[in-house]
Specification:
Layout (H helix, E strand, L loop, with lengths): L6 H11 L4 H6 L5 H9 L7 H14 L1 H19 L3 H12 L5 E3 L2 H7 L7 E6 L2 E11 L7 E8 L4 E7 L5 E5 L12 E11 L3 E3 L2 H31 L7 H12 L6 H29 L9 H14 L4 H8 L1
Helix pairs in contact: 1-3, 1-4, 4-5, 4-8, 5-6, 5-8, 8-9, 8-10, 8-11, 9-10, 10-11, 10-12
């Protein structure tokens, strides 16, 4: 059941914990841990897709990097909630919902696999105590040694299985990805698995295909919140030149977030909305840069930041190219 977003409380948190630090987050790549902790302490991580969509949009209006790590964390929570492990639901889930433990979604490769773009990069052999996994995930965001991240792998006998592990698990090597065009505060790492043990109690689903089909609508739809927040922020600065599509995109996102049975036509609508949101973000950010003139051509300019955020939204999974391939 959906709970209404307490916007007054949220704005109070964002004004004190996020707004003064947006430039540090963007330019210096400072991970917004204090924002995430504050949101967790006030129970913003314990809700459903419509709530999460609104939450991400509000945060993205101030900072795309923080909105993205928030999206990563909320998706990791969703995986654990949907998963088959009662141990994780009783032990890990409450700590993630309180913001005591951060979560990451290492499923970019999996999404590309289901779109026919990539082969799965993680492979495993089942043993008496779990699965031994090898391979490398090039990009996993909102990760760190104490963060837990979800992933999909294929076994020797062709099964696709989802699991979740902490970054400190023996055999994992995390290498931070810096010097990106933007979004350097998103704690993005490459993650190499060297005979890593996934215990049976940390298996999210032995039916990986079904699990992905179940969470994918919410996964793609809540990303639209980042685009909505970005366009909204740009519109505030553009006055009469603001993007007129924001209201329609918002209405579509709100309608789709309420759908309980996701049919193929509905999933196509979600993909189309995600694609439309990415294009709207790019065009709004571009207009904002032109509108700002020389003031926008500074590293710490909010217009320059929005442009970097928009390009990130265009290339993060599912990318514009990925979406166009799916939609034909």
């Amino acid at each position: 059941m959906s709970t209404c977003l307490d916007r007054e409380l949220l704005q109070d948190i964002l004004q004190h914990h996020l707004k003064p630090f947006v430039s540090e987050i963007d330019v210096k790549g400072v991970y917004p841990e204090h924002v995430m902790k504050a949101l967790g302490e006030h129970r913003f991580f314990s809700h459903d897709t419509p709530f999460n969509l609104s939450l991400i949009q509000e945060v993205a209006t101030l900072c795309g990097s923080t909105a993205f790590v928030l999206w990563c964390h909320l998706m990791a929570i969703d995986y654990v909630r949907r998963g088959q492990s009662e141990h994780l639901k009783q032990d890990l889930l409450p700590r993630m919902e309180r913001g005591e433990v951060m979560g990451a979604t290492g499923l970019s490769n999996a999404m590309k696999y289901y779109a026919g773009i990539e082969e799965l990069k993680l492979h495993a052999t089942q043993t008496s105590d779990g699965f031994r996994i090898n391979g490398t995930l090039p990009f996993v965001s909102n990760l760190g040694e104490t963060h837990w991240f979800a992933f999909l792998f294929q076994t020797d006998d062709g099964r696709r299985i989802m699991g979740i592990l902490p970054g400190y698990q023996e055999g994992l090597t995390l290498t931070e990805r810096k010097n990106l065009l933007g979004m350097n505060a998103t704690a993005t790492y490459s993650c190499r698995f060297n005979n890593v043990l996934l215990p049976f109690e940390s298996v999210l689903s032995t039916e990986g295909d079904l699990m992905v089909a179940a969470f994918r609508p919410g996964m793609v739809l809540t990303q639209v919140g980042i685009a909505l927040g970005l366009v909204s922020a740009t519109n505030q600065a553009l006055g009469e030149r603001k993007d007129p599509r924001l209201t329609e995109l918002h209405h579509q996102a709100e309608r789709l977030s309420q759908v309980t049975t996701v049919t193929p036509p509905i999933m196509k609508e979600i993909f189309q909305l995600r694609l439309d949101g990415a294009h709207a973000a790019l065009e709004s950010a571009h207009t904002g840069m032109l509108h700002s003139g020389g003031a926008g051509y500074q590293v710490d300019s909010p217009f320059a930041r929005r442009l970097r955020e928009a390009y990130f939204l265009a290339i993060v999974t599912p990318t514009i190219t990925h979406l166009e391939k799916i939609l034909g």
